[in-house]
């Protein structure tokens, strides 16, 4: 949600017995935002659809892509499959009253839901599909929530109603943890075009500039403010 992933797995399904499915979810956050939450959803083993409806809002999803490919080694452990085993990757934009509120990225073994690409409605709940169509209820879940910087692609996907997402990358800045007269200052200054450290006020000034309505066309950008450190 650094990946933005949801790993799903079912372990051992004996005949005439439904084994609960485990789920691991990472919810993707955004960069610096001065606004209240778009959607408050209590932690529970329920779909986003159910959470949106509990708030008397209309859920929805826009399909970005549904792909099938051999599972890479880095993902295999989370999904609970062998490296190279076929997996589905379902990626969608989450909506509440037609407003984009997040991104959903789901990986699941093809052997568990072989007809996902045939009989799954892209704008419906994946939880409900697994429970009602596949016949596998969710038993428990591990849920991780973390805030990460949005990539330009993610900013494009979730940008709506004039909301912009940008990444500010400060260089050497005179702070208590990294003072301009500290032991590493001389080495850092040797890499910089300007012969001084930046100040917290200068970093804040760029932040306020991006928050100004006159910068409303700037989104999905990574901006260096580092005195030429990366030039």
Structure description:
This protein has 231 residues and is α/β, with parallel strands linked by helices. It has 2 domains: 6-149, Chorismate lyase-like (Chorismate lyase); 167-225, no CATH class. It is 22% helix and 27% strand. The chain is built from 7 helices and 8 strands. A 6-stranded mixed β-sheet has the order 3-4-5-1-2-6. A two-stranded parallel sheet has the order 7-8. It is elongated. The model is unreliable at 1-41 (pLDDT under 50).
Keywords:
alpha/beta, 231 residues, single chain, 7 helices, 8 strands, Chorismate lyase
Report low-confidence residues grouped into runs of 5 or more: 1-41
Number of strands: 8
Q: State which percent range the strand residues make up.
A: 25-35%
| CATH architecture grouping of the largest domain | 3-Layer(aba) Sandwich
Distance, first to last CA: 30 Å
Reading the helices and strands in chain order gives: EEHEHEEHHEHEHHE
**Structural class from helices and strands?**
alpha/beta
CATH fold naming of the largest domain: Chorismate lyase
Total number of helices:
7
């Amino acid at each position: 949600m650094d990946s933005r992933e949801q790993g799903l797995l079912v372990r051992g399904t004996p005949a005439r017995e439904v084994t609960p499915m485990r789920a691991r979810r990472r919810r993707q956050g955004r960069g610096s935002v001065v606004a209240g939450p778009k959607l408050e959803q209590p932690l529970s083993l329920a779909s986003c659809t159910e959470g949106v409806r509990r708030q008397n809002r209309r859920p929805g999803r826009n399909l970005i892509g549904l792909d099938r490919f051999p599972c890479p080694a880095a993902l295999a452990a989370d999904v609970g499959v062998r490296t190279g085993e076929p997996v589905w990757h379902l990626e969608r934009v989450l909506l509440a009253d037609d407003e984009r509120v997040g991104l959903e990225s789901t990986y699941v073994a093809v052997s568990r839901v072989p007809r996902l690409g045939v009989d799954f409605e892209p704008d419906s709940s994946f939880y409900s599909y697994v429970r009602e169509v596949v016949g596998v209820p969710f038993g428990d879940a591990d849920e991780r929530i973390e805030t990460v910087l949005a990539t330009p692609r993610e900013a494009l996907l979730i940008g709506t109603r004039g909301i912009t997402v940008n990444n500010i990358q400060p260089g050497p800045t005179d702070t208590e943890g990294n003072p301009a007269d500290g032991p590493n200052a001389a080495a850092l200054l040797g890499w910089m075009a300007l012969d001084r450290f930046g100040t917290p006020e200068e970093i804040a000034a760029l932040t306020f500039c991006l928050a100004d309505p006159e910068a409303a066309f700037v989104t999905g950008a990574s901006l260096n403010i580092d005195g030429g450190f990366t030039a």
